[in-house]
Amino acid sequence: MNHLDPRSPLVFDTKSLGRRPGSMELVQRTAEAPADLGTDVIGVPQGDPVELDLRLESVVEGVLVTGSATATATGACVRCLDPVAVPVDARFQELFAYADRAAHHREVGAGDDETEEYMLEGDLFDLEPVLRDAVVPSLPFQPVCREDCPGLCSECGARLADDPDHHHEVIDPRWSALQALSADTEEKRN
To answer: Pick from 20, 88, 14: which is nearest to 55 by CA?
Structure first.
Protein backbone atom coordinates (compact mmCIF):
# COMPACT_ATOMS: atom_id res chain seq x y z
CA MET A 1 0.00 0.00 0.00
CA ASN A 2 1.31 3.44 -0.94
CA HIS A 3 1.41 5.94 1.86
CA LEU A 4 0.55 9.55 1.19
CA ASP A 5 3.35 12.09 1.27
CA PRO A 6 2.19 15.08 3.37
CA ARG A 7 4.62 17.31 1.42
CA SER A 8 2.75 16.68 -1.85
CA PRO A 9 0.80 19.79 -2.94
CA LEU A 10 -2.37 17.75 -3.52
CA VAL A 11 -2.27 15.93 -0.17
CA PHE A 12 -4.14 17.69 2.62
CA ASP A 13 -3.91 17.20 6.38
CA THR A 14 -7.19 17.24 8.33
CA LYS A 15 -5.67 16.96 11.81
CA SER A 16 -6.56 20.55 12.73
CA LEU A 17 -10.17 19.95 11.59
CA GLY A 18 -10.76 17.23 14.16
CA ARG A 19 -13.45 14.56 14.05
CA ARG A 20 -16.25 16.55 15.65
CA PRO A 21 -19.09 16.78 13.10
CA GLY A 22 -19.84 20.32 12.10
CA SER A 23 -16.33 21.72 12.32
CA MET A 24 -15.17 23.40 9.12
CA GLU A 25 -11.97 24.76 7.66
CA LEU A 26 -11.36 26.84 4.54
CA VAL A 27 -8.20 26.12 2.57
CA GLN A 28 -6.74 27.96 -0.39
CA ARG A 29 -3.68 26.59 -2.12
CA THR A 30 -1.85 26.89 -5.41
CA ALA A 31 -0.62 23.48 -6.48
CA GLU A 32 1.29 22.25 -9.50
CA ALA A 33 -0.81 20.31 -11.98
CA PRO A 34 -0.15 16.57 -11.94
CA ALA A 35 0.83 14.69 -15.10
CA ASP A 36 -1.88 13.85 -17.63
CA LEU A 37 -4.48 16.31 -16.36
CA GLY A 38 -6.44 16.35 -19.59
CA THR A 39 -6.91 14.50 -22.85
CA ASP A 40 -4.70 13.94 -25.89
CA VAL A 41 -6.09 17.13 -27.44
CA ILE A 42 -6.14 19.56 -24.50
CA GLY A 43 -5.05 19.60 -20.87
CA VAL A 44 -3.41 21.49 -18.04
CA PRO A 45 0.35 21.10 -18.55
CA GLN A 46 2.19 19.29 -15.78
CA GLY A 47 3.64 21.78 -13.31
CA ASP A 48 1.32 24.66 -14.27
CA PRO A 49 -0.46 26.34 -11.35
CA VAL A 50 -3.88 25.10 -10.27
CA GLU A 51 -5.71 27.38 -7.83
CA LEU A 52 -7.63 25.35 -5.26
CA ASP A 53 -10.35 26.82 -3.07
CA LEU A 54 -11.61 24.18 -0.62
CA ARG A 55 -14.03 23.83 2.26
CA LEU A 56 -13.31 20.88 4.53
CA GLU A 57 -16.20 19.81 6.75
CA SER A 58 -16.07 17.16 9.42
CA VAL A 59 -19.08 14.86 9.18
CA VAL A 60 -19.91 11.59 10.93
CA GLU A 61 -18.62 9.49 8.04
CA GLY A 62 -15.40 11.44 7.39
CA VAL A 63 -14.38 14.71 5.78
CA LEU A 64 -16.58 16.29 3.12
CA VAL A 65 -14.45 18.27 0.66
CA THR A 66 -16.23 20.88 -1.44
CA GLY A 67 -14.26 23.11 -3.72
CA SER A 68 -13.17 24.46 -7.04
CA ALA A 69 -10.06 24.32 -9.14
CA THR A 70 -9.10 26.99 -11.65
CA ALA A 71 -6.32 26.70 -14.19
CA THR A 72 -5.58 27.19 -17.88
CA ALA A 73 -5.67 24.25 -20.26
CA THR A 74 -3.66 24.38 -23.46
CA GLY A 75 -3.84 22.37 -26.62
CA ALA A 76 -4.42 22.64 -30.35
CA CYS A 77 -7.44 23.74 -32.35
CA VAL A 78 -8.97 20.64 -33.91
CA ARG A 79 -9.70 22.57 -37.12
CA CYS A 80 -6.50 24.52 -37.84
CA LEU A 81 -4.00 23.18 -35.24
CA ASP A 82 -3.28 26.67 -33.85
CA PRO A 83 -2.52 26.80 -30.11
CA VAL A 84 -5.56 27.11 -27.85
CA ALA A 85 -5.77 28.26 -24.23
CA VAL A 86 -9.01 27.54 -22.35
CA PRO A 87 -9.81 28.67 -18.80
CA VAL A 88 -10.78 25.78 -16.51
CA ASP A 89 -13.14 26.22 -13.58
CA ALA A 90 -14.07 22.81 -12.18
CA ARG A 91 -16.25 22.28 -9.13
CA PHE A 92 -16.36 19.14 -7.03
CA GLN A 93 -17.65 17.63 -3.79
CA GLU A 94 -16.35 14.38 -2.37
CA LEU A 95 -16.48 12.50 0.90
CA PHE A 96 -13.22 11.11 2.23
CA ALA A 97 -14.37 8.45 4.67
CA TYR A 98 -12.69 7.51 7.92
CA ALA A 99 -11.18 4.05 7.50
CA ASP A 100 -13.19 2.59 10.39
CA ARG A 101 -16.48 4.01 9.06
CA ALA A 102 -15.81 2.75 5.53
CA ALA A 103 -15.01 -0.72 6.86
CA HIS A 104 -18.27 -0.72 8.87
CA HIS A 105 -20.30 0.26 5.77
CA ARG A 106 -18.70 -2.50 3.71
CA GLU A 107 -19.47 -4.94 6.51
CA VAL A 108 -23.17 -4.11 6.64
CA GLY A 109 -23.44 -3.97 2.84
CA ALA A 110 -24.25 -0.28 2.56
CA GLY A 111 -21.67 0.32 -0.14
CA ASP A 112 -22.17 -0.16 -3.87
CA ASP A 113 -19.30 -2.13 -5.39
CA GLU A 114 -19.22 0.12 -8.46
CA THR A 115 -19.03 3.37 -6.50
CA GLU A 116 -15.52 4.68 -6.06
CA GLU A 117 -14.76 5.25 -2.41
CA TYR A 118 -12.17 7.71 -1.16
CA MET A 119 -10.70 7.18 2.28
CA LEU A 120 -8.58 9.18 4.65
CA GLU A 121 -5.19 7.70 5.35
CA GLY A 122 -4.71 8.69 8.95
CA ASP A 123 -5.50 12.40 8.80
CA LEU A 124 -4.43 12.79 5.15
CA PHE A 125 -6.32 12.70 1.87
CA ASP A 126 -5.12 12.92 -1.73
CA LEU A 127 -7.13 15.32 -3.89
CA GLU A 128 -5.51 14.27 -7.21
CA PRO A 129 -8.09 11.65 -8.31
CA VAL A 130 -10.97 13.97 -7.42
CA LEU A 131 -9.27 16.85 -9.24
CA ARG A 132 -8.76 14.67 -12.32
CA ASP A 133 -12.42 13.51 -12.22
CA ALA A 134 -13.58 17.15 -12.06
CA VAL A 135 -11.19 18.79 -14.55
CA VAL A 136 -11.01 16.31 -17.42
CA PRO A 137 -14.78 16.20 -18.16
CA SER A 138 -14.95 20.01 -17.98
CA LEU A 139 -12.49 20.37 -20.88
CA PRO A 140 -13.87 20.91 -24.39
CA PHE A 141 -14.11 17.68 -26.39
CA GLN A 142 -13.07 19.47 -29.60
CA PRO A 143 -11.32 22.75 -28.74
CA VAL A 144 -11.30 25.47 -31.39
CA CYS A 145 -9.33 28.71 -31.56
CA ARG A 146 -12.55 30.54 -32.42
CA GLU A 147 -16.10 29.36 -33.14
CA ASP A 148 -15.95 30.30 -36.83
CA CYS A 149 -12.49 28.79 -37.48
CA PRO A 150 -12.55 27.57 -41.10
CA GLY A 151 -9.74 25.06 -40.50
CA LEU A 152 -7.31 23.72 -43.09
CA CYS A 153 -7.79 22.92 -46.77
CA SER A 154 -8.47 19.22 -47.16
CA GLU A 155 -6.52 19.15 -50.45
CA CYS A 156 -3.28 20.98 -49.61
CA GLY A 157 -3.38 21.82 -45.88
CA ALA A 158 -3.39 25.62 -46.34
CA ARG A 159 -4.88 27.68 -43.52
CA LEU A 160 -8.26 28.83 -44.78
CA ALA A 161 -8.29 31.77 -42.34
CA ASP A 162 -5.27 33.24 -44.18
CA ASP A 163 -6.92 32.90 -47.62
CA PRO A 164 -10.73 32.82 -47.41
CA ASP A 165 -11.01 32.54 -51.23
CA HIS A 166 -8.74 29.49 -51.37
CA HIS A 167 -10.15 26.62 -53.41
CA HIS A 168 -9.12 23.89 -55.83
CA GLU A 169 -10.74 22.96 -59.13
CA VAL A 170 -11.98 19.49 -58.42
CA ILE A 171 -13.29 17.52 -61.34
CA ASP A 172 -15.54 14.61 -60.71
CA PRO A 173 -13.59 11.53 -61.88
CA ARG A 174 -16.68 10.35 -63.74
CA TRP A 175 -16.40 13.40 -66.03
CA SER A 176 -12.63 13.31 -66.54
CA ALA A 177 -12.92 11.38 -69.84
CA LEU A 178 -15.16 14.15 -71.20
CA GLN A 179 -12.64 16.75 -70.13
CA ALA A 180 -9.93 14.89 -72.06
CA LEU A 181 -12.21 14.88 -75.15
CA SER A 182 -12.82 18.60 -74.68
CA ALA A 183 -9.08 19.26 -74.49
CA ASP A 184 -8.49 17.21 -77.68
CA THR A 185 -11.18 19.16 -79.50
CA GLU A 186 -9.58 22.48 -78.47
CA GLU A 187 -6.17 21.33 -79.78
CA LYS A 188 -7.62 20.29 -83.13
CA ARG A 189 -9.28 23.72 -83.50
CA ASN A 190 -6.02 25.59 -82.89
So the answer is: 14
Longest dimension (CA), the chain: 100
pLDDT in tens, 60-107: 999 999 999 999 999 999 999 999 999 999 999 999 998 876 555 555
Residue of 61, 33, 31 whose CA lies nearest to 47: 33
Residues with Cβ within 8 Å of 128's Cβ and at least 6 positions away in sequence, in order, are 10, 34
Give the number of other CB atoms < 10 A from CB of residue 108: 7
Q: Look up the pTM and report it.
A: 0.75
C-alpha span between 48 and 36 (Å, rounded): 12
Burial 153-189 (b: 16+ CB within 10 A, else e): eeeeeebbbeeeeeeeeeeeeeeeeeeeeeeeeeeee
